[in-house]
Amino acid sequence: RFFIVCYHLPVMVTKDPTTGEWQASWSESLLAKTCQGTFVSDAHRIGTITTNVSVTESDKKALRSLLASMDCTVLFFDDATRDAHYKGFCKQVLWLAFHHVDLLDMREPAVSFDL
User: Fold this and answer.
1) What sign does the dihedral 49-55-56-61 (CA atoms) show?
2) Are 18 and 33 in contact (CB under 8 A)?
3) What is the pLDDT of residue 22?
């Protein structure tokens, strides 16, 4: 078993305006699937979700239960923490580190091409 921790869970959630019930489905994200197009079966995903409505405490409880059935743990942050993490740590530290890996090791690049 392994854990995938990402900022956005690879799920789409919606709230039915008539019944007030939450529904969730997998998105077409690469984090949700393997290279063969099937779901990673032995993974537990941890992250945030995006909704089109404000989320109350009872909504959070319902979403935690719903997403637990999909083997996901949803995290809820206040606005300041969310912005500091996403705009600060994710975009200014992690993105740079993971997208410039070859620049971190100029002497022995991770990938070499013989042309």
Assistant:
1) negative
2) no
3) 96
Q: Which residue in 26, 74, 76, 70 sits closest to 55, CA to CA? A: 76
Task: Look at residues 59, 85, 90, 86 and name the one whose alpha carbon lies nearest to residue 74.
Answer: 59
The C-alpha atoms of residue 85 and residue 31 are separated, in whole angstroms, by 20
Q: How far apart are CA 115 and CA 73, in angstroms?
A: 46
Among residues 99, 21, 6, the alpha carbon closest in space to that of 65 is found at 21
The dihedrals phi and psi of 21, each to the nearest 5 degrees, come to -85, 145
The model's pTM is 0.70
Minimal CA–CA distance to 49: which of 31, 72, 71, 32? 72
The widest CA-to-CA distance across the chain, in whole angstroms, is 61
Separation between Cα atoms, residue 85 and residue 42, nearest integer Å: 27
pLDDT digits (tens, 9 = 90+) for 31-59: 655 444 555 567 899 999 988 888 999 99
